[in-house]
């Protein structure tokens, strides 16, 4: 099939909706099979694995030859230019507790550039989409981010990794930031945080330690909503740091994060 951003988005949306349905149905049943991954707080449920398997199978049927990078099963090789990046359930801890902030995140990359992405909140059905150059959307409404200016008026979302040493550093950064902003939110799903920033539901978002599947789709949604999405000091957004903020807020948040050494530490 065609590999235009629109064609890839159409597939991503269809598959993400089915996957979100599976996640929701499995949530209604008792969650008994909970294992830990990198640390004792990094959990994975049978649903994470089942949803990833479902998406991988659907992509293989529809787009044989494309590569897939998924959170639970890792990478599969790609014969062509297209690679899919999947977080079957972003916000696994929310999922475990039944807090309605967990999402299927699916993005399509062509030659290493993310060109289409969908984030679907599986609990609420909220769905954010974007294509490269085509804008960011939710329910037919084009998104443009917060118009607030001034870091002291900004509601800033963030998240924490699972490694205790990293968390200690992230806590110290927040101790320095909390007196400079309106408030902080830790909602528990990076993909949703990015989409909220895209629609102005929070003013900005930052996090250290993200993996590609956490930010590939949501990062495109935020960028297409007009936010600046990058690392610190002109670096690309990635594991060291991702900051997403409207242009009028970006520099103030960026400079505060540099001053607080937010990209430093473990
Ligand atoms: C996590 C969530 C969380 C963020 C972590 C991620 P997971 O993803 O997005 O909000 O702070 O960095 O690892 O484990 O729920 O898929």
TrEMBL record:
Residues the record lists as binding Mg(2+) 1: 71, 89-90
Q: What is its EC number?
A: 3.1.3.25
Which positions does UniProt annotate for Mg(2+) 2 binding? Answer: 87, 214
Can you tell which superkingdom this protein's organism belongs to?
Answer: Bacteria
Q: Which GO terms describe its molecular function?
A: inositol monophosphate 1-phosphatase activity; metal ion binding
- One Pfam entry for this protein is Inositol_P
Q: To which protein family does this belong? A: Belongs to the inositol monophosphatase superfamily.
What's the protein called, per UniProt?
Inositol-1-monophosphatase
Which species does the entry assign this protein to? Actinoplanes digitatis
């Amino acid at each position: 099939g065609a590999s235009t951003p629109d064609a890839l988005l159409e597939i991503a949306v269809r598959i993400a909706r089915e996957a979100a349905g599976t996640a929701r149905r499995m949530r209604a049943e008792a969650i008994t099979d909970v294992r830990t991954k990198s640390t004792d707080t990094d959990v994975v449920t049978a649903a994470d694995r089942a949803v990833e398997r479902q998406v991988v199978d659907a992509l293989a049927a529809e787009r044989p030859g494309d590569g897939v990078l998924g959170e639970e099963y890792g990478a599969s090789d790609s014969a062509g230019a297209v690679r899919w990046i999947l977080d079957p359930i972003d916000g696994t801890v929310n999922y475990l507790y039944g807090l309605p902030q967990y999402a299927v995140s699916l993005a399509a990359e062509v030659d290493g550039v993310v060109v289409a992405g969908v984030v679907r909140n599986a609990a609420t059905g909220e769905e954010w989409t974007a294509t490269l150059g085509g804008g960011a959307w939710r329910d037919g409404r084009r998104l443009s981010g917060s118009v607030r200016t001034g870091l002291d008026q900004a509601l800033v979302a963030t998240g924490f990794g699972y490694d205790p040493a990293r968390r200690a550093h992230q806590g110290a950064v927040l101790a320095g930031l909390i007196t400079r902003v309106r408030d902080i939110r830790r909602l528990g799903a990076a993909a949703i945080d990015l989409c909220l920033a895209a629609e102005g539901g929070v003013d900005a978002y930052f996090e250290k330690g993200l993996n590609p599947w956490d930010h590939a789709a949501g990062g495109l949604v935020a960028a297409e909503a007009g936010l600046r999405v990058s690392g610190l000091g002109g670096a690309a957004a990635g594991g060291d740091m991702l900051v997403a903020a409207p242009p009028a807020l970006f520099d103030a948040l960026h400079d505060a994060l540099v001053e607080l050494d937010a990209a430093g530490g473990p």
